[in-house]
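Hey, resending since the last one bounced:
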Amino acid sequence: MTGERFPLVRAVFEYENTNMPQNIYDNPEFFAGYDRLRETGSGMNEVLEQPAFRSLLPDVTGLRVLDMGCGAGEMCRLLADQGAATVTGMDVSENMLEKALEQHQDRVTYIHTSAEEAAFDVGSFDLVVSSLMLHYVEDISLLLKKIHTWLACGGKYIFSMEHPVATATQGLVETRWDRGENGEPIAWRLAHYSEEGERSTRWFIDGVVKYHRTVATVVNGLIGSGFRISQMLEPHAIEEAERERPELIDERMRPAFLFIAAEAVK
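The C-alpha cells again:
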C-alpha cells in the first residue's frame, strides 16, 4: 500500500515477502464477503470462538505479547486494554492490517508478514496467541518449534483452529450434514480423517486452501516442540446466542473449533 493515507502501515511493515502462503484475505471478493460476515455478526466468531478464546487468556498485565494472524487487530486492542506491556500483531493481509490501523492503539505494533516467514529473537515474548490461523499453515511442526524459541521460559501459547472433525472432509465430500425428512441436520459426516494434508474448499470463493491434520498430530507437535498442555476446549456457542439463534444448537453435534493453551518448558 502506498500514499500518505497510511504512513503508519509503511513504517511498521518490516518487509514484503515474495514466498508467502496463500493470502486469501487480500482477494477483493473474499474480503468483501468476510467483511460482511463480521459486520453482521452472523458468523461463529462473536458467539463461540472469541468467548472461548478469552476464557483461556491469563492476566496479561506487563506481558510482551505476539498475536499471529492478528487480522483487524481486535485481540491486539483487547490485550493492550488489559495491561499488556507491548503487543505485536502480525498478519499476511494488507487489507486486515489496514482495518487494524484505523483503530491504532499505543503499545501495539503491526508487522506485515506471515507466520511462516516471521523471525523474532529468542525469548522475545511472554505470551503468543493465534486465533483461527493454524489451519492455514502447512508445516505446523516447524512453526511450533519457532514459537517455543520466541517464548520466555514459562511463556504461554494459546490458539484456536478449525477442529479436525470440521477440516477432514472439506473439499472432499459434497454434503457434510446428514438431514432428516424435513431437512433438519441429524448427524455430521466424518470421513478422510486420517488423510492429512491440503484441503481446497469454498468459503465466499473457490480455492481457499487449508490444511487438515488430526488432533493427535497437533497435540504431539506441541509436546515434541517443548510445550506442556494445560487446557483444551471444544466448546459450543454461548447460551444467549443459542437462545437468539436456535440453529446454533445444531452445532453441538460436532465441535467447530479446537482450543489449546500450552506452556513453554525450557
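The two ends are 40 Å apart (CA to CA).

Sorry for the duplicate.
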